[in-house]
Amino acid sequence: MLPFARVTIIGLGLIGSSLARAIRADMPTVRVTGYDADPAVRDTARRIDLCDDITDTAGASVTDADLVVLCVPVRAMGAAAAEIADDLPVDAIVSDVGSCKADVLAQLNAALPGRTIIPAHPVAGTENSGPEAGFATLFKGRWSIVTPPADADPIAVERVAELWRRVGADVEMMDPAHHDLVLAVTSHLPHLIAYTIVGTASDLENVTQSEVIKYSAGGFRDFTRIAASDPTMWRDVFLANKDAVLEMLQRFSEDLSALQRAIRWNDGDALFNLFTRTRAIRRSIIEQGQDDAKPDFGRSH
Ligand SMILES: NC(=O)C1=CN([C@@H]2O[C@H](COP(=O)(O)OP(=O)(O)OC[C@H]3O[C@@H](n4cnc5c(N)ncnc54)[C@H](O)[C@@H]3O)[C@@H](O)[C@H]2O)C=CC1
Ligand SMILES: O=C(O)C(=O)Cc1ccc(O)cc1
To answer: Which of UniProt's keywords are assigned here (predicted)?
Structure first.
């Protein structure tokens, strides 16, 4: 049985539009309604026939929904939830796709007290944004991490998990705080490093911009893809997942200082041992068949 009959998607960018496309492709009888705060995005969504219906207000989009999925930047979740509070049917489930979970859950609880809130995070995406960047197969073979509150209704949790399975994702359950720590090191810190290194290269005085572009070898090119990711989305992730990111950044800085010291003192063994350990990690990811499948760091479609 389908987990939901009428799904509303709020925020029709990369993830919201991919979810709309995936639901229509994989569950064609489900009615998909969309809303975005940006009128230009709503126009585009209508032009490309993204949903069965696009409404001009948030409230109108949820009046007959049995699931509402918030697909807006993480620090906009509370405002988006507050806008639907008066029109949300009593038995509707509210979910989201935010890249960090504890802060978003707090925002949703504050905006929608007493409502059924089952957050999730599809660990799948690209550096692109907007309604035309989405695609129906984005979630296939990827993880979707569902982070229910401790007292969540198990039936509601299972319905949200089943939605993600239906669009091709593998589902994992996680505590929100643990999710935030894991994703801080596997996703948020790598983005911060990419933003930094591309910024550092572009600030150099003795190396021209055109030399950076012309001679960018594999490593730097990969960083430029990640550093092209949406500024609003990532500003919000770093501020909303501040504690976990600062904790991982502290550890990273200490490890970087150890490497700096090894180079300064010609400690080749230290360098060789670390590089051998990290190569083994890459190989075990490939052996587990997760290279290009999941998680999705470093892949564009
Ligand atoms: N981009 C990625 O690779 C991934 C993003 N995510 C999460 O998905 C969410 C959406 O990200 P993207 O789709 O990439 O962003 P996006 O920038 O492509 O789309 C976000 C959309 O939300 C709309 N919006 C902003 N505030 C709103 C509000 N209050 N009410 C209604 N609409 C509003 C914007 O107009 C925009 O169209 C974020 O929370 C992000 O952390 C999760 C997994 C991967
Ligand atoms: O484009 C990439 O490599 C990504 O890392 C995509 C991504 C961005 C944010 C997420 O929360 C999950 C996946």
So the answer is: Oxidoreductase
Query: Global pTM?
Result: 0.94
ipTM of the complex: 0.99
Is 10 a pocket residue for ligand 1 (Cβ < 6 Å)?
yes
User: Under a CB-based contact definition with an 8 Å cutoff, are residues 59 and 175 in contact?
Assistant: no
- Write the pLDDT tens digit of every residue in 216-229: 877 888 899 999 99
Mean pLDDT (whole number) for 251-269: 97
- Ligand 2 centroid, distance to 125 Cα (angstroms): 5
Per residue, the 3-state secondary structure of the chain, as one string, reads CCCCCEEEEECCCHHHHHHHHHHHHHCCCCEEEEECCCHHHHHHHHHCCCCCEECCCHHHHHCCCCEEEECCCHHHHHHHHHHHCCCCCCCCEEEECCCCCHHHHHHHHHHCCCCEECCEEECCCCCCCCHHHCCCCCCCCCEEEECCCCCCCHHHHHHHHHHHHHCCCEEEECCHHHHHHHHHHHHHHHHHHHHHHHHHHHHCCCCCHHHHHHCCCHHHHHHHHHCCCCHHHHHHHHHHCHHHHHHHHHHHHHHHHHHHHHHHCCCHHHHHHHHHHHHHHHHHHHHCCCCCCCCCCCCCC
Ligand nearest to the CA of 184: 2
